[in-house]
Amino acid sequence: MPTTPSAGPSRALSFSGAAALYAAARPGYPPEVFVALEEAAGRTLDTLRAVDVGAGTGIATRELVRRGAHVVAVEPGEGMAAELRRSLPEVPVVRGDGNRLPLADDSAGLVTYAQSWHWTDPARSWPEAARVLRPGGVLALWWNVADHRAPWVAEQNARIRRHLGADHGVHGTPAPGTASRAVGLPEKGTVSRRLPWARRVSVATHLDNLAGHSAFLVRGGEHAERDRRFFAEEGDRLRELFPDGAVEERYVVDLTTTTV
Ligand SMILES: C[S@@+](CC[C@H](N)C(=O)[O-])C[C@H]1O[C@@H](n2cnc3c(N)ncnc32)[C@H](O)[C@@H]1O
User: Fold this and answer.
1) Residue 95, domain member (yes or no)
2) Which of 72, 75, 160, 188 gets the most CB atoms within 10 Å of its CB?
3) Cα-to-centroid distance, 241 and ligand 1 (Å)
């Protein structure tokens, strides 16, 4: 059963207090994302210097490294950066921020933001990415959006919204087909794709994945008992829906690339 950590310093940095939970339960990204990056760059990843911004615990960083990219990770959160250093000791990790990248001009062929662009101010992060990219380089932003075409996903999201009393659930943008969070980019050179995929995980991992979203992480200890009951009921429902105990989480990756 997930436990809800007490409120962190801010929503953007709330993940740092729950880095191990995040690393264990968050979904990765399908291979099609990395194929699309190579298509956009016109080069294979093993020829590219990449900067993974808002790298977190390194979920996207690991995939870039696996495909041979030379990656520098940029991450503002202390806990996330520590988890990344622990799991990928060969990757340089710079504590920094997408609004002010601690990197030289024209120093990368690829800048990636996996589920982190929305924490930046695009009026600052776009010029920063363009400055760090060499001519012809690619900025890539993507998010795993839960696929609300699966009825149980939409119903769970409605329950989460009621529970949190928030405008949004914890599934990212409300549904595929609604506005992307890839905002602030020039129209010229920008291409968007939607890549559906799925993973099967235990009920416990699925609940930990939900609990590791910032909407839960920022809640104070006074909500802990109510949250505990919410996750217990959600677990019961899921075990009825998936009697073999394997939850099929369905996602659409919302991927946008811009060539400078
Ligand atoms: C949802 S996590 C994504 C982590 C990782 N990229 C992944 O794919 O799992 C968002 C990350 O953005 C980081 N972040 C918050 N504010 C940021 C900013 N202004 N610039 C860059 N990263 C930021 C957080 O610390 C967190 O690690």
Assistant:
1) yes
2) 75
3) 32
